[in-house]
Amino acid sequence: MAHIGFLGLGDMGQVIVPRLIAAGHEVTGWNRSPGKDAELKSLGMKTGDCPASIASTSDFIFSIVTNGAAVKEVALGDDGVIHGIADTAVYLDMSTIEPEVSREVHSTFKSAGKTMVDAPISGSPITIAQGKASLMIGGDQEVFPRIEKVLLDIGAKATYIGSSGLATQAKLSINALLMIEVIAFGEAVALAEKGGVDREVMVNAILNSVAASPVLGYRGPFILEGKMPAKPLADVAVQQKDMTLVLEQGRRLSMALPIASSANDIMNICRGMGLGHQDFVVAHEAYLRMGGITS
Fold first, then answer.
1. From CA 80, how far away is CA 74, in angstroms rounded?
2. Using an 8 Å Cβ cutoff, are 91 and 139 in contact?
3. How many CB atoms lie within 10 A of CB 196?
4. DSSP-assigned letters across all residues of 248-275
5. Kind and range of the H or E run holding 121
6. What is the C-alpha separation between 165 and 171, in angstroms, rounded?
7. Which residues contact 34 (CB under 8 A, 6 or more apart)?
8. Cα-Cα-Cα-Cα dihedral of 266, 240, 186, 224, to 10°?
9. How many Cα atoms occupy the beta-carbon half-sphere of 90 within 13 Å?
10. 53, 29 Cβ separation under 8 angstroms
């Protein structure tokens, strides 16, 4: 058993914390806005006043928050992790943010004699709950053996990627591929429908073909009649936030990303059509409208 601090009790925290508790760890949670801890407390999670106080009693401190600014506040702010964490503890940030921010936080921790790694998780709430998510680590390599076991209590695989920021860099590339794949799926199904193929028949054909993938396996059926979840796994705005980070990396690295740019444009079209509140697999609906199949 380890004493674990968990900062950020949003959709991802709601499924990660129960896995840590089920593995026998003592978890103390905190969220920037109140009202998200009731169910987790019923499972045995304790709560703390601020990141620094939680860090002071934790062996491992995880955070998963909205953006780079939030990470810096949680990690380095007046009540941030850095002011409470012990020299023997490890801070793991799971947020999908700019690699440059991960490196900045890592450098500040290292200068203070503390340990921080970027630890993004690849998986949706569904795959995390199923224990099928994977985690990537960026930071000092000697830290990885110390944290590997607790990572495997969250997901099925944990991989050391490289120095600070490289796990976050890898996560952005994975998210770009995921978004492109889901949007291409919507385009392919819409094309088949325009040609006369029944939608459900086409979805099943794809899921039984070499083009099938885990993300299409659980997200693809959402486009069938009445199957779109009321609460999206990741709505258009959330997914587009990650793609914006991807495109900014392309700018910084002087790297052309034409397919990612096109995928981002489809997300703009979805928002323009009033579909932005739905899971981003709704791109299929945008293609139907553009193709004149629905209005």
1. 5
2. no
3. 6
4. HHHHHTT---HHHHHHHHHHHHHHHTT-
5. strand 121-122
6. 10
7. none
8. -130
9. 22
10. no
pLDDT at 34: 84
Q: Is 16 helix (H, G, I), strand (E, B) or coil?
A: helix
| pLDDT score, position 295 | 66
Q: d(Cα 219, Cα 223) in Å, to the nearest integer?
A: 8
* Spatial CA neighbour of 188 closest among 256, 260, 287: 287
Q: How far is CA 194 from CA 56, 79, 223, 235, 281, in A?
A: 60, 56, 15, 26, 18
1 burial class (0-12, 13-18, 19+ CB within 10 angstroms)? Answer: exposed
Domain boundaries, given as residue ranges, for the chain: 3-162, 170-290
3-state secondary structure of 47: strand
**Residue 273 burial (C-beta neighbours within 10 Å; 0-12, 13-18, 19+):** middle
Q: At the top level of CATH, which class does the domain 170-290 belong to?
A: mainly alpha
Q: Decide if domain 3-162 falls under CATH 2.70.70.10.
A: no
In the structure encoding, which two tokens stand for residue 244, read together?
């914006």
Specify the pLDDT at position 89. 98
The residue among 289, 284, 265, 283 whose CA lies nearest residue 189 is 284
Q: What global pTM score does this model have?
A: 0.93
Contact 42, 58 (CB under 8 A): no
Tokens representing residue 104 in the block: 């900045």
Q: Which residues of the chain have pLDDT under 50?
A: none
Residues 156-180: b if buried by 16+ CB within 10 A, e if exposed: eebebbeebbbbbbbbbeebbbbbb
Q: In sequence order, which residues have a C-beta less than 8 Å from that of residue 285 and are 6 or more positions away? A: 186, 223, 270, 273, 275, 278, 294
